[in-house]
Specification:
With 381 residues, the chain is α+β, with helices and mostly antiparallel strands. The protein has helices spanning 2-33, 39-58, 69-78, 81-102, 114-137, 141-158, 210-226, 232-246, 333-344, 347-350, 355-363, and strands spanning 168-175, 185-192, 197-205, 253-261, 266-272, 277-280, 287-290, 308-311, 317-321, 371-378. The strands form two sheets. Strands 1-10-9-6-7 form a five-stranded antiparallel beta sheet, covered by helices on one side. Strands 2-3-4-5-8 form a five-stranded antiparallel beta sheet, covered by helices on one side.
Length: 381
């Protein structure tokens, strides 16, 4: 009996020790993930307040009372509003102590003036606004930037074109509006039918830059899941239904869906209100517009999309793009297309390596809109 009781106590002790270690490990992980309390940051910043006050009293040449804005600004980025108010109270107390100890007739950098109080109070006010915004959004400071970086990289990965068999060249360039990291233009692509078929969808979501980035991320994930899971003729109707279910205020998008047979070069283009694709014929050296017919995505249910069919012969080039590349406030789409094809003709003899990026640079470098360009070329031999 005594031995069994001892074993029971040992088992309970091991269980309790395991729970304690798990709780401590979880607390540490949660803190660095940004999910835990801000007590550690609060304690560190709180200690800097008396340190700055002592430095102001003892070494006034090196420390100024206005240095109290440093922990306040840091607190606005790191702390929750409740903890931030405690830090403000400590900073106000430090200013009062400095004013009382130094006296009203103190001269030099250590003097506490009404201007110093106003500067510290203003920094505290703006810090509180920042803390309230972070609290409302629910994104901790330690993970906010990481989350945005992760979202941007997910869009880039989803827009990556699959490798093509020998004899085919593909490249894509994307330039968001205003040099931002997020764009309303995106591409999803996949090899289907046992790798014989290339399916590419180029979409332009309403809006541009950051304002369209979240919708573009959501749609790119949904479209990537639909691509290859449905027959090509069912993709745009399914995408249209998905967009309608979102019930967004700006819930429309244009899209063009390319279905290319990599063995024969035959293709279908299905368009949802998108600009036509351009095909360069190696035999004639002329560009021709290729486009299916269909309404914008997200406008009404039951939309139908009629495909356009063609063939990419050896040496031919197919170019898909968004309106930011050819349309501006002072330039018609037809003029922009003429300029784009004129610049693209320069790469016929020089080769098409890097042409997508350079075409955007030449044609629409300073346009304040999202720009995307996709090139697919069949080798001449």
């Amino acid at each position: 009996m005594a031995g069994a009781r001892v074993e029971t106590l040992r088992a309970r002790a091991r269980m309790l020790s395991h729970r304690v270690r798990t709780a401590l490990r979880k607390s540490a992980v949660d803190y660095f993930r940004g999910d835990a309390s801000d007590w550690l940051a609060f304690a560190g910043l709180l200690l800097t307040v008396p340190a700055i006050a002592c430095g102001t009293l003892m070494l006034p040449v090196w420390f100024s009372p206005s240095a109290l804005v440093l922990p306040i600004v840091a607190g606005g980025l790191l702390l929750r509003p409740a903890s931030l108010l405690g830090l403000y109270a400590a900073s106000a107390t430090a200013l009062i102590v400095e004013a009382l100890v130094l006296g009203p007739y103190t001269e030099g950098p250590a003097r506490v003036t009404p201007g110093t109080v106003l500067v510290v109070a203003a920094c505290g006010f703006f810090g509180l606004i920042i803390a309230q915004f972070r609290s409302r959004v629910g994104v901790p400071w330690r993970r906010g930037g990481t989350m945005l970086f992760d979202l941007r990289e997910r869009i880039r990965v989803q827009s990556k074109l699959p490798a093509l068999p020998p004899g085919w060249h593909r490249e894509m360039a994307l330039r968001p509006a205003g040099g931002q990291s997020f764009s309303g233009d995106f591409v999803v692509a996949a090899r289907t039918n046992g790798g014989r078929t290339l399916e590419v969808v180029l979409t332009d979501v309403s809006g541009k830059g950051m304002e369209a980035g979240s919708r573009a991320l959501l749609l790119s994930g949904a479209f990537g899941g639909l691509l290859g899971a449905l027959p090509p003729q069912d993709f745009l109707p399914a995408a249209n239904g998905y967009l309608l279910r979102q019930d967004w205020d700006e819930g429309f998008a244009t899209s063009i869906h390319l279905v290319l047979d990599l063995e024969t070069g035959d293709y279908e283009l299905l368009s949802a209100g998108h600009l036509p694709a351009l095909q360069l014929s190696a035999g004639t050296g002329r560009w021709q517009e290729r486009s299916g017919e269909g309404p914008l995505l997200g406008v009404y249910d039951g939309a139908e999309f009629e495909p356009a069919r063609g063939n990419l012969r050896p040496g031919d080039v197919l170019m898909l793009f968004t309106d930011g590349l050819v349309e501006t406030a002072d330039r018609e789409i037809s003029e922009g297309i003429d300029r784009l094809t004129g610049e693209a003709d320069r790469y016929v003899a020089a080769g098409w390596e890097g042409a997508a990026w350079h075409l955007i640079e030449k044609v629409a470098k300073d346009v304040n809109d999202d720009r995307a360009l996709l090139l697919i070329r069949r080798a001449a031999f």
